[in-house]
Amino acid sequence: MPFLTDYWHLGLVAAVIGLIALDYASRFMVPALKLKTSLNRVHAQLIDLIAQRPSQSIDLAQLKSQVMTSPSLQHAWQQYASTLQPQWQAADGGPLGAARQRVSHLSRAFFGHMGQASGGGRLDLSNIEQLSQNDPQLAQVWREYSQALESLQQLESSAATTAGKWQASSHADLYFTDQALVDTPLQSNFYKHIPGILTGVGIIGTFTGLIAGLIGFDVSNPERVQAELSQLVQTVGHAFLVSALAITLAMVFTWIEKSVLTGRYRQVEELQQALDTLFTPQGGMPSVERLTLATEMQAALSYKILTQLRAAANGSPQQR
Fold it and tell me: Hey, CA dihedral for 149, 155, 160, 164, is it positive or negative?
């Protein structure tokens, strides 16, 4: 077959281009379509959870097993779920909020009065006990503070911590990243170079056709010069066709890659927004408020325990 004999090099280049295109379609485009379907499903389920949140609690384990089904999503969810914690109730929200407000108010009053009584000096537990014994007003504030602490502990222990009131300590974009959900599964860092590879293969095909045509070009016989020249032009023309095909595919693949990645990045952003809506990230002030209140409660409870131990050791129970 003269055609295959004369144009085998162009056939080889065309076969390489075809294999590259097949690999691009099977290992980038098909996974990208599957990822699109998966992210759409996850986003739709999160939207349903957001709509049901006021009336239905959220089961975090069920959310992981039924919503975050892909390995990349499960890995990101496992890290993100570690930041979730029971939502801190506002100071004026229900009986628990009223109890916290009372404890905070009595805490400021108790420690403020105690600081004035000590003259601004360094306080320890023994000094606290002495000050409260010598100051009836401070002792009265302490009794009220102690009772408020006990009431708050009872309310917090009896309050049901439902999964519908989870709150994130950080934004979802720190864990559900474009790199983890899109770039790594789709190997975009590799396939973004496919257009350049196709262009290079097309250029190689062009030069291969030129070299093959020039090698076979024979000018020793003047009677065959016109036929040889015609054969050279045909060979070069076919080489340019192969190169044009490669460059066209490179342009098409570039457009496909940018369109696909832009669409997936947009879906990841929608997923992040849905998670931030479902588990509202808390600011810094609630954490500081909780830390301050916990520190004050710890100091008060330590003093209370010390008082009870001393009373038990002396055999003369003191008023709690």
Answer: negative
Amino acid at the residue 87: Q
Using DSSP's 3-state secondary structure scheme, residue 168 falls into strand
Q: Look up tokens 């929608």; give the residue.
A: 270
Q: What is the pLDDT of residues 176-214, one digit of tens each?
A: 999 999 999 999 999 999 999 999 988 888 887 777 777
Listed as own residue / partner, the contacts of 22-27 with beta carbons closer than 8 Å and 24 or more positions apart are: 24/191, 24/194, 24/253, 27/187, 27/191
- d(CA 168, CA 216) in angstroms, rounded, equals 73
Q: Cα(111)–Cα(266) distance, rounded to whole angstroms?
A: 52
Distance between the two ends of the chain, CA-based, in angstroms?
108
- Tell me the pTM: 0.63
Q: Does residue 58 register a pLDDT over 80?
A: no
Instruction: Output the pLDDT for position 161.
Output: 39
What's the Rg (C-alpha) of the chain? 37
